[in-house]
Write a structure and sequence with these properties.
By secondary structure, the protein is α+β, with helices and mostly antiparallel strands. 55% of the residues lie in helices and 14% in strands. The termini are far apart.
Length: 173
């Protein structure tokens, strides 16, 4: 999703989603619709990340979890995203996050999002089994792949090493 010269968000995401939902189910079955929605979201998120300056060596990474992480987005699902960063000044992190989140909100897209360093995210996921479960199928979307891998690998290691002590907690979920 890009912006016009006046800063107004283009409605690529809104139009694309509407166009996909308008296709009759006999021409685009559910599995095809989910795949097409994932492609649409990934393209738009990659464009937004580029506009925000999120690149391979930027110290930022955009990670999807939940439905987008599993590549099983439903038509009206929220996007579950984590903007991971190396320790940066709050102002820089805020500007990057705003460049990502506001166009999505303007397009009417629901978000479950956070902005964290890898250690902050690992701390959250170690204390929240529901969030940790969602992160088990997380995927790198844009930016510094090494930073994404630190987060995703860290969550998976925590899960493997702590599963025995969390079994009762999982049963309750």
């Amino acid at each position: 999703m890009t912006t016009t010269a006046h800063g107004a968000p283009r409605t690529t995401l809104t139009r694309g989603r509407a166009d996909l939902l308008a296709v009759p189910a006999d021409r685009l079955p559910a599995a095809g619709l989910r795949e097409a929605l994932c492609e649409l979201y990934e393209i738009e998120l990659t464009c937004l990340a580029e506009e925000a300056g999120i690149g391979p060596r930027s110290g930022f990474a955009l990670v999807a979890f939940g439905g987008l992480g599993r590549r099983e987005v439903l038509p009206h699902s929220d996007l579950d995203l984590v903007l991971v960063h190396e320790r940066r000044p709050s102002r820089d992190v805020g500007e990057v996050a705003d460049t990502l989140w506001y166009p999505l909100w303007d397009a009417g897209q629901g978000l479950d999002h956070s902005v964290r360093t890898v250690p902050q995210a690992l701390q959250v996921f170690s204390s929240d089994p529901t969030a940790a479960l969602g992160m088990l199928e997380a995927r790198h979307i844009a930016g510094d792949a090494q930073l994404s891998n630190l987060l995703i690998g860290g969550v998976r290691r925590q899960w493997r090493t702590g599963i025995r002590s969390r079994f009762d907690e999982l049963i309750e979920l």
